[in-house]
Amino acid sequence: MRTRAATGPNGITEGVIWQQLLIFFFPILLGTFFQQMYNTADAIIVGKFVGKEALAAVGGATGTITNLVVGFFVGLSSGATVIIAQFFGAGEHRGVSRAVHTSMALALAFGVALTACGIALAPWALEAMGTPADVLPHATTYIRVYFAGITAVLVYNIGSGILRAVGDSKRPLYFLIVCCGVNIVLDILFVVGLNMGVFGAALATMISQVVSAVLVIVTLMRSGMSYRFEWKRMTFDPQILRRVLRIGLPAGVQSTMYSISNLIIQICINGFGTDVIAANTACGKIDGLVWMIYGAFGVSITTFVGQNFGARRMDRVRRSVRTCMAMAVGVNVALGALLLLAGRPLYSMFTDDPHVIDLGMQILWIVAPAYWTYAGIEILAGAVRGAGDSVRPMVMTCMGVCVLRVLWILTAVPLRPELSTVMLSYPISWVITSLLFIVYYRRGSWLKRCLGSA
């Protein structure tokens, strides 16, 4: 049933674009910040109270593996977010409900499968990645506990995606503030108070993620709108599932390819020893703010384009992309400069080892000046995905980022086997892939194709 276009809680299909983008953006950014604080709190506390081997364990290879798995599902679930946003923008409330229940069924089924596979296979994967012997026991413990609670991670992500698709970016933020506080308190209790080491940090994170999943489920169950969740209605709607997979599967593959390329880079980094692994782990936490901002802009523009595409407001589609791109570039130019200035004090939060801090600054000076170049990838890919075009962004990203990084690692690093050579793979791939997206977006064929298939 199609009714008049719905504007949603934040008036995404109406109003001043830059204001509406910021209203939607800041809760997502803050929510992502508190989500990032889960692992950052683990890293700070175990780095200070357990040691650099434990710090390497909660990042490094474990971070690469969990990002690979969770990233695939988040990419896959983005198909549900786009479909729900388009249904909601078009006022098709029955379609919203069908998509909500199919998406939640997908999260639960995927989570159960991942728990079994992750607990069984993760130790083998850590060894295959060349994790140092002094890090391996800690990393194995951390990742097994993480996979034991991964269903909660997926349920929260799909639930918060549902809320954001209909324009509600505030309640996911509130949930994450609560759960981040729970995680920090439990980290201090388990690691510092009870001396449980890496296991305590992992357990604190798992409990916090369960809390976040419960909060989002209860919120959806209590909603009086079309996105209300009811357990008895949870099922796989074949038509909706096909649409979700058509958009989400390429995004999931793209995320997996990202993670695989980063896994190969991590293997190279592992070969430089524990100090470099620890420095890279800390750098990943420090520049996490950059990726939080890009992620928030990406979710914002995907939802904006999705709802306005569903409402057939093509003028707002184009203007919102231009506005979002300008914001993303400006913010990340400033942020890159700020991180370079404050790098050493930030690294000292994670470790007191001066060699690890020096290595971290070496990494930061290579990647930070190029952060702004990633805007062309995140914003334009999110925009065309919001209109329903997911395959071509996936191909461009996989070729421009993933394949190029692997080729760089296989060709340049053997010729100059230094940490700086490995890290240069990031800015080089960002620049080339952004140029590909700019050319593709400006040609405009993606919008005509999406309008023709809608």
Shape: globular
Task: Calculate the mean pLDDT score and round it.
Answer: 83
Number of DSSP helices? 18
Instruction: Give the tally of β-strands.
Output: 0
Distance between the termini: 15 Å
Structural class comes to: mainly alpha
Question: SSE order, as H and E?
Answer: HHHHHHHHHHHHHHHHHH
Residues in β-strands, percent: under 5%
The stretches of 5 or more residues where confidence is low (pLDDT under 50) are 1-10
Radius of gyration: 21 Å
Largest sheet, strands/sense/barrel:
none
Protein name: Probable multidrug resistance protein NorM
Transmembrane segments: 21-38, 68-91, 103-125, 145-166, 173-192, 198-223, 244-269, 289-311, 323-343, 363-383, 395-415, 421-441
InterPro entries: MATE_fam, MATE_MdtK, MdtK-like
Pfam family, one: MatE
How would you summarize this macromolecular structure in one to three sentences?
With 454 residues, this protein is an all-alpha fold.
Structure description:
This is Probable multidrug resistance protein NorM. It is a single chain. This protein is an all-alpha fold and about 450 residues long. Helices cover about 80% and strands about 0% of the residues. It is built from 18 helices and no strands. It has helices spanning about 15-50, 50-60, 60-90, 95-130, 135-150, 150-165, 170-195, 195-220, 240-270, 275-285, 290-310, 315-345, 355-365, 375-385, 390-415, 420-425, 425-445, 445-454. Helix 1 (about 15-50) runs antiparallel to helix 8 (about 195-220) and helix 14 (about 375-385) crosses helix 17 (about 425-445). Residues about 1-10 have low confidence and may be disordered.
